[in-house]
């Protein structure tokens, strides 16, 4: 199977071959998608789901963190977003998409990678 390893050009074009994790509340078509369900959905798209953000992860779905206990309340950052920054230091780029972006990918579309916005928010703190 095709394995995603190319450098990021600012867009995420497919779920195929991605190793995915999530943070926050992911909503697709107005419906809150639970972890187990999400894992099943993305498997049908040729992606793998993991609970932890490690060096294997290529894509993070950044759901809504409002009202959740997050690692850094000041900038509404979860541990997984902080892990994205930590992976950066190891020269490993993890693409980040929103719930809307994820929905777009499920529909076969392309979405923006929010990685740089996340990194900017972290460094602005
Ligand atoms: Zn990216």
Brief summary of the model shown:
The protein has helices spanning 35-43, 79-89, 99-106, 115-124; strands at residues 11-12, 19-23, 27-28, 31-32, 48-49, 59-62, 95-98, 111-112. With 125 residues, the protein is of the alpha/beta class. It has one domain: BRCT domain (Rossmann fold).
Approximate strand percentage: 15-25%
Domain module count: 1
How many extended strands?
8
Which fold does the CATH topology refer to? Answer: Rossmann fold
Which stretches of 5+ consecutive residues score pLDDT under 50? 1-5
The CATH class label is: Alpha Beta
Helix/strand class = alpha/beta
Mind summarizing the main beta sheet? 4 strands, parallel
Q: Count the helices. How many? A: 4
Secondary structure layout plus pairing:
Elements: E1 11-12, E2 19-23, E3 27-28, E4 31-32, H1 35-43, E5 48-49, E6 59-62, H2 79-89, E7 95-98, H3 99-106, E8 111-112, H4 115-124
Parallel strand pairs: 2-5, 2-6, 6-7
Antiparallel strand pairs: 1-8, 3-4
Helix pairs in contact: 2-4
Zinc ion binds at residues 8, 93, 95, 113, 115.
What does this molecule look like?
With 125 residues, this protein is an alpha/beta fold. It has a single domain, classed as BRCT domain (Rossmann fold), CATH 3.40.50. The chain contains 4 helices and 8 strands, in the order E-E-E-E-H-E-E-H-E-H-E-H. The strands form 3 sheets. The protein has a 4-stranded parallel β-sheet, with helices on both faces. It has a two-stranded antiparallel ribbon with strand order 1-8. Strand 3 and strand 4 form a beta hairpin. The longest helix is centred in the last third of the chain and has 11 residues. The protein is globular.
């Amino acid at each position: 199977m095709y394995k995603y390893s190319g450098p990021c050009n600012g867009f995420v074009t497919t779920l195929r071959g991605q190793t995915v994790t999530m943070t926050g509340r992911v909503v697709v078509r107005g419906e809150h998608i639970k972890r187990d369900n999400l894992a099943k959905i993305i498997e049908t798209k040729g992606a793998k789901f993991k609970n932890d953000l490690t060096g294997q992860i290529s894509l993070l779905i950044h759901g809504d963190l409002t009202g959740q206990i997050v690692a850094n309340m000041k900038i509404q950052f979860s541990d997984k977003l902080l892990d994205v920054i930590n992976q950066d230091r190891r020269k490993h780029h993890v693409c980040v998409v929103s719930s809307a972006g994820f929905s777009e990918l499920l529909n076969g579309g392309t979405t923006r990678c929010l990685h740089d916005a996340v990194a900017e928010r972290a460094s602005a703190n």
